């Protein structure tokens, strides 16, 4: 679990195996790299909204009381060189204005997402998918390509029409159905 203000971390070369509930959760993260991981059989449909392989959430309308912006500005005053780090490219206020949430710039590439039960969600997101990069992954669902479940802002979106077509995510990823 990576919580608010996590940024610049690399989650690489891991195996997330048979985790009931959320395989991995990221909340308001920025400029993180999730690559070359195996997510195997994570998420169980019986757990409802807490069942997914990857959860990526962000404060949708920004920082209402300003505490994240104040923390960001305080960090920069204490160490101005932070502005050179990709995770500090945008302040919480700038990111919220530009992307609609504070979660942005994360890269999800070259992962294997394998789950057997088509009732489990592939992703649960409350962010702007175009503010992040998703590509060159291998996705194997329990059913066919149309059984991939993506929840975006509490609505199920269509894999081909919305996720790939509208948002441009996983265009070069490989999707496999059931393997006998």
How is this structure best summarized?
It is built from 3 helices and 14 strands. The chain has 180 residues and is of the alpha/beta class.
Shape: globular
Report the biggest beta sheet as strand number plus sense, adding barrel if it closes: 5 strands, parallel
- Beta-strand fraction estimate: 25-35%
Radius of gyration of CA atoms, rounded to a whole number: 16 Å
Count every beta strand, where a strand is a DSSP E run of 2 or more residues. 14
Kindly state the percentage of residues in helix: 10-25%
Characterization of the model:
This protein is of the alpha/beta class and 180 residues long. It has three helices and 14 strands. The strands form three sheets. The protein has a five-stranded parallel beta sheet, with no helix packed on it. β12 and β13 form a beta hairpin. It is globular, with a radius of gyration of 16 Å. The two termini are 33 Å apart.
